[in-house]
From TrEMBL:
<dbReference type="Pfam" id="PF04542">
    <property type="entry name" value="Sigma70_r2"/>
</dbReference>
<dbReference type="InterPro" id="IPR024655">
    <property type="entry name" value="Asl1_glyco_hydro_catalytic"/>
</dbReference>
<feature type="domain" description="Asl1-like glycosyl hydrolase catalytic">
    <location>
        <begin position="384"/>
        <end position="602"/>
    </location>
</feature>
<dbReference type="GO" id="GO:0006352">
    <property type="term" value="P:DNA-templated transcription initiation"/>
</dbReference>
<protein>
    <recommendedName>
        <fullName>RNA polymerase sigma factor</fullName>
    </recommendedName>
</protein>
<keyword id="KW-0804">Transcription</keyword>
<dbReference type="InterPro" id="IPR014284">
    <property type="entry name" value="RNA_pol_sigma-70_dom"/>
</dbReference>
<dbReference type="InterPro" id="IPR007627">
    <property type="entry name" value="RNA_pol_sigma70_r2"/>
</dbReference>
<dbReference type="InterPro" id="IPR013325">
    <property type="entry name" value="RNA_pol_sigma_r2"/>
</dbReference>
<feature type="region of interest" description="Disordered">
    <location>
        <begin position="323"/>
        <end position="359"/>
    </location>
</feature>
<comment type="similarity">
    <text>Belongs to the sigma-70 factor family. ECF subfamily.</text>
</comment>
<feature type="compositionally biased region" description="Low complexity">
    <location>
        <begin position="344"/>
        <end position="359"/>
    </location>
</feature>
<keyword id="KW-0238">DNA-binding</keyword>
<feature type="domain" description="RNA polymerase sigma-70 region 2">
    <location>
        <begin position="24"/>
        <end position="89"/>
    </location>
</feature>
<dbReference type="Pfam" id="PF11790">
    <property type="entry name" value="Glyco_hydro_cc"/>
</dbReference>
<keyword id="KW-0805">Transcription regulation</keyword>
<dbReference type="InterPro" id="IPR000838">
    <property type="entry name" value="RNA_pol_sigma70_ECF_CS"/>
</dbReference>
């Protein structure tokens, strides 16, 4: 979900501007659903709590003194409403599992709609086994791990200190790891005979007592003990997971003049299942009739809804990513970022309709592409209107570009930090890209200490330095990039801009805001210019999947518009230029003058 509430939008919404409120609701209703839904396990109370949160936010927006704190304020209100719902029920009476709304089961939606597999699926299933005291924290930490919230926002929302929050999160994560081992043992085929005996009295419902019993068995049983082995850190599995959209079962439209009493009575559950467009109308109507601005109108006029924005019910990951970057797994790279002279990794191919040649696009200084050696690269670079490009190499010897299109060199990894490569890079220009995805074993695979030790060699070139480009989690406290930037500050090293990669596995209209939200979050964390050196739509979960032409075009148009508007974004580059062989599903050009549909959209960008 995008962090899209800029100060101007909040101020306008606070003044009662329906269009501004529309943007706030569209951007934050998914976040509220995610926090409440996961905290309440998809219980029937979810819709009531979400409605209470959103109406409270709109009614009290006028009292928000600092518009820049809107996001933290919203999260804090959401957490308070969840707690109030827990306090309102009789003591020692748990949420009745029978009252869960099957259509709002976050875990099932994460598994089925995102096609989760392997350890991601196990992690999603394991959340059902957590103690109730950790459910609120889980809903927040899940969003932190997937790049939707920061640790500071969690601390502000829970009202406890940073150290206390850290301790609680570690305890919750330890319980989650135990639950993952339990899920593995239960899913093993065939199940251990001794475990079958133990489970004879189990009613099939996850709970703390049976979690402890099954976990104790797995530790003591030779057959079940492997359930504890090779557990990838949950943060890595969740990073970048996309929000799961609710199905649009129907799309009722309110009349163009609806009494405010009727509007307030429409349940959020109905609005969400109709798509966020109705939810926006309901909530915008409340605000426009005086909830914030103080007006007394009793009738609301609605404009025709645009394409519905799906409400979300679970933070899952697309991780890279990144959040939001593509989903990662122990055996798969979250992004096809490659060293020089290596062909791209995606293997799926599909036929594409040839596009007719067109005049070269007007050049954008920000717009660029990642290019590997291919026929027609020079012509395609000129035709697409790129202001710059790179090839993961220290020089353009292998992929020369046309006059007027800047080549930016890269020092790809530790082995490339040599006098010869640094000399090559310095001869190419005045900007140098740092290491490529050092947080991935299949890419440059560098620990933070080695990267910091090598950085002074890059500084010695006198060039402007762009940070190492992590595959995901660029805004995650304690992540690879966070530790690198902290170490650079402590050692007095110079980093002039931040590089990031992002791949989305959610091919819906929400992908644009997921991507731009990650860009905003990274910039907010480090306060430096941003270079998006790889981005695109690819689902790396299991067999690689790719969006349709229409989905790629929609994403490119929205993403590039947002990047061009952001003054702190200095450069961005699509992955990648060639659309041949293994890259036909995501590349831009079949040859020097034949763009794909995505290529035509990217050519028009900027």
């Amino acid at each position: 979900m995008a962090r899209q509430s800029d100060t101007a939008t909040v101020i306008a919404a606070r003044a009662g501007d329906p269009a501004a409120v529309d943007r706030l609701v569209a951007g934050y209703l998914p976040l509220v659903y995610t926090i409440v839904g996961r905290a309440l396990e998809g219980h029937a109370d979810v819709d009531d709590v979400v409605q209470e949160v959103m109406l409270r936010v709109l009614r009290n927006l006028g009292d928000l003194r600092d518009p820049e704190s809107f996001r933290s304020w919203l999260v804090a209100i959401t957490v308070r409403q969840v707690r109030e719902r827990f306090r309102a029920r009789p003591a020692a009476v748990p949420l009745d599992p029978e009252l869960r709304d099957p259509g709002a089961d976050f875990t099932d939606l994460a598994i089925t709609r995102l096609e989760l597999s392997g350890q991601r699926r196990e992690t999603a299933e394991a959340t059902r086994w957590l103690d109730e005291e950790y459910r609120e924290l889980l809903s927040l930490w899940w969003l932190e791990a997937s790049g939707e919230l920061t640790r500071d926002e969690i601390v502000a929302a829970t009202g406890v200190g940073r150290q206390h929050t850290a301790v609680r999160i570690q305890r919750m994560k330890a319980q989650l790891e135990t639950a993952r081992a339990v899920v593995r043992a239960l899913n093993r085929a065939p199940r251990c005979a001794d475990l079958m005996v133990l489970l004879d009295a189990w009613d099939g419902r996850p709970g703390s007592l049976w979690r402890k019993r099954i976990a104790r068995h797995t530790r003591d049983c030779r057959a079940c003990a492997p359930a504890w082995e090779n557990l990838v850190a949950a943060e890595r599995l969740l990073t970048g997971m996309a929000l799961v959209p609710l199905p649009i079962n129907f799309n009722p439209v309110l009349s163009t003049a609806t009494p405010i009493s009727q509007i307030q009575a429409v349940p959020v559950k109905l609005a969400a299942k109709a798509g966020s467009s109705l939810a926006q109308k309901v909530l915008v109507g409340v605000l426009a009739t005086g909830a914030v601005a103080g007006g007394g109108a009793a009738v609301v006029a609605y404009r025709a809804p645009a394409e519905p924005v799906n409400a979300a019910v679970v933070a899952a990951p697309e991780v890279s990513r990144s959040p939001i970057a593509p989903p990662t797994s122990p055996a798969a790279s979250p992004a096809p970022s490659l060293p020089p002279s290596v062909a791209p990794s995606p293997s799926k191919s599909a036929k594409r309709t040839s596009a007719a040649p067109a005049a070269a696009a007007e050049q954008s200084a920000k717009k660029g592409v990642g290019v590997w050696k291919c026929a027609g690269a020079k012509g395609a670079l000129k035709d697409v209107g790129a202001g710059w490009y790179y090839s993961w190499a220290p020089s353009d010897d292998e992929v020369p570009g046309p006059a007027g299109v800047e080549f930016v060199p890269m020092i790809w990894g530790k082995a490339n930090v040599t006098d010869a490569t640094l000399k090559q890079a310095k001869a190419e220009g005045d900007v140098l890209l740092g290491f490529n995805e050092p947080d991935l074993a299949e890419q440059s695979n560098m620990n933070v200490e080695d990267a910091l030790a090598a950085w002074p060699r890059l500084e010695s070139t006198g060039m402007k330095l762009v940070s190492p480009a992590v595959a995901f989690g660029g805004d995650t406290p304690g992540g690879w990039l966070d530790r690198f930037m902290k170490g650079a500050t402590e050692k007095g090293l110079r980093v002039d801009a931040i590089a990031l990669h992002w791949y989305g596995s959610d091919f819906s209209a929400a992908a644009v805001n997921q991507f731009l939200g990650y860009v905003d979050a990274v910039h907010k964390r480090y306060g430096k210019p941003i270079w998006v050196t790889e981005f695109g739509l690819i689902n790396f979960g299991g067999p690689q999947k790719y969006p349709s032409d229409a989905q790629k075009v929609r994403f490119i148009e929205g993403a590039t518009t947002g990047l061009e508007k952001r003054s702190f974004v200095q450069r961005y580059a699509w992955f990648g230029l060639p659309a041949v062989g293994d890259s036909v599903d995501f590349g831009l050009y079949k040859d020097g003058k034949t763009p794909t549909e995505a290529g035509k959209a990217y050519r028009a960008a900027g």
